[in-house]
UniProtKB/TrEMBL annotation:
It catalyses: (1S,2R)-1-C-(indol-3-yl)glycerol 3-phosphate + L-serine = D-glyceraldehyde 3-phosphate + L-tryptophan + H2O. This is Tryptophan synthase alpha chain. It comes from Deinococcus terrestris. The alpha subunit is responsible for the aldol cleavage of indoleglycerol phosphate to indole and glyceraldehyde 3-phosphate. SUPFAM superfamilies: Ribulose-phoshate binding barrel. The gene is trpA. The keyword Lyase applies. CDD domains: Tryptophan_synthase_alpha. It comes from the Bacteria. InterPro entries: Aldolase_TIM, RibuloseP-bd_barrel, Trp_synthase_alpha_AS, Trp_synthase_suA. Tetramer of two alpha and two beta chains.
Length: 266
């Protein structure tokens, strides 16, 4: 696997640099593609993009092992409504026609292989995707995905966790071309009660010894206070389940995004 600086990587790095120049961490909201429905997704995404430095869109998948019940249920709802991998990429293409903000796709590897790796990358490139987050693909087991992504201008992002060994952190950090995704806690996605971010600073010290890309932190960030805690040590703040909850509860997603984005300041 060859780490290649692609057009997508350049756009992502520019987004992080722009946030840094304003003395804040990049705000990276997440939303499941096709949630709450294919028709309702664009308005939710537009509300998030009004405040985002980078938007993360999840490909709905029937067996999302790294996701907690909130995102699992959102994927189930999107799939039940007919949102497929191809439909998600079409929704992103429509977003790209209205927004210049970088967009990354979070996908497990099975949807890529179901479409076909080369065809998936072609569709992602045509949709205007800038990068891929690959939660279940260890870079040392990736025989073609990252190189195919680079051929199509897409950056790749892999994950580390508090349980990652120094050797594993080095391997993953050096393989990332978009940004390095640091999982704040051991476990699955979701908002948490109390402070679940105590292990982040030490993990980032280790990550930055090897990362040549920005480092973003996700899992457990739910409001301005937890965003501020992460922003004090990370280059980016990823927030997902809180927005799924907001959509489900009929809350103002844009207002919540504005609140959390303000919390990303330093």
């Amino acid at each position: 696997m060859t780490a290649t600086l692609t057009r997508g990587a350049e756009r992502l790095h520019a987004a992080f640099a722009g946030a840094k120049a304003e003395n804040r961490a990049a705000f990276i909201p997440f939303m499941t593609g096709g949630f709450p429905s294919a028709a309702g997704f664009p308005a939710v995404a537009d509300a998030l993009l009004a405040h985002a430095d980078i938007l993360e869109v999840g490909i709905p998948y029937s067996d999302p092992l790294g996701d907690g019940p909130t995102i699992q249920r959102a994927s189930e709802q999107a799939l039940a409504g007919g949102t497929s991998t191809r439909r998600t990429l079409a929704l992103i293409r429509d977003l790209r026609a209205r927004h210049g903000t970088p967009i990354v796709v979070m996908t497990y590897v099975n949807p890529i292989y179901a479409v076909g790796p080369r065809e998936f990358m072609r569709l992602a490139q045509e949709a205007g995707v800038d990068g891929l987050i690959l939660p279940d693909l260890p870079p040392d087991q990736d025989l073609e995905i990252a190189d195919l992504a680079a051929e199509h201008g897409l950056a790749v992002t892999f994950l580390i966790a508090p349980t990652s060994t120094p050797e594993r952190v080095k391997l993953v950090a050096e393989a990332c071309t978009g940004f390095l995704y640091a999982v704040s806690v051991t476990g699955v996605t979701g908002t948490r009660e109390g402070s679940a971010l105590s292990e982040v600073p030490a993990m980032l010290v280790l990550a930055r010894q090897h990362a040549r890309v920005p480092v973003a932190v996700g899992f457990g960030v739910k409001d301005a206070a937890t965003a501020r805690q992460v922003a004090s040590v990370a280059d980016g703040v990823v927030v997902g389940s809180a927005f799924i909850h907001a959509v489900r509860d009929g809350q103002d997603v844009g207002a919540l995004a504005a609140e959390i984005a303000a919390g990303c300041g330093r």
